[in-house]
Design a protein that fits this description.
Distance between the termini: 46 Å
Order of helices and strands: HEEEEEEEEEEEEEEEEEE
Strand content: over 45%
Helix content: under 10%
Number of helices: 1
């Protein structure tokens, strides 16, 4: 688990670095500044901190949870970094305290459908600031199979910030669909070579920069939903 989290944060480091405009990246990989972990900021006020928020939502999960990770960064440091607060700072989401775990603060939230945001609060030395983490719509995909042609609809969320990809498969073949803007209507797929029991895998990916009292807030969101399918009408 520790290794997986470090690999995830390494991948997000450059994106957060660009958002903060605090890294001087050269033309070669050798010029990339090293990542700093568990930084204790001198000034932990919101305006001095960047925040990368990552949400992973498995819409097939029985527990109905979405994993939220918040990585705070000290904007005064040129290197990409993650912050561990040590001076009475706290983060809560929907009333639940977030716990520091290797590189970020984590929370398993209920997948909400009655609100547009998870309400997260950051408190530093008696001052509280709000972080509104956007909630995406449930994918709820529907499909129609006409001969070898698959037509797919689903609940859209944010066409400008999100993309959807569909993968169709059986026991022998995998058909990777193109990434498509999140508008609720996925382009048709030719699934003529698929036979018997298989799956449709839907993935929505979003990246958003949010206005905030913090130095910068970026949100990366991924939701997945799979459906069991019998490809009995896929033959030409």
């Amino acid at each position: 688990m520790r290794i997986a989290k470090l690999l995830l944060i390494a991948g997000l480091g450059l994106w957060g670095c660009a958002i903060l405009s605090s890294c001087d990246l050269g033309s070669s990989q050798a010029d990339v500044l090293p990542m700093l972990h568990q930084v204790s900021p001198v000034d932990s006020s919101p305006g001095k901190l960047g925040v990368n928020i990552v949400l992973n939502e498995d819409q097939n999960a029985i527990d109905g949870k979405v994993a939220i990770e918040m990585r705070f960064m000290d904007a005064a440091i040129r290197n990409p970094n993650d912050v561990q607060f040590t001076d009475r700072e706290t983060i809560t989401c929907n009333g639940v305290p977030l716990v520091y775990d290797v590189t970020s603060y984590t929370y398993d939230a209920d997948i909400l459908s009655t609100s547009n945001n998870y309400r997260c609060l950051y408190t530093s030395h008696g001052h509280t600031s709000t972080l509104a983490v956007p909630i995406q719509t449930r994918l709820a995909p529907r499909y129609v199979l006409r001969g070898p042609t698959l037509n797919i609809r689903y609940n859209p969320s944010n066409k400008k910030a999100c993309f959807v990809q569909v993968v169709a498969s059986d026991s022998l073949h995998v058909q990777n669909g193109l990434s498509h803007p999140d508008d609720g209507l996925y382009s048709t797929m030719d699934v003529g070579e698929l036979r018997g029991a298989g799956k449709l895998q839907f993935t929505r990916t979003c990246k958003v920069v949010r206005p905030s009292v913090f130095h910068a807030v970026s949100v990366s969101y991924q939701a997945s939903r799979s459906i069991d399918v019998i490809w009995k009408h896929a033959a030409r």
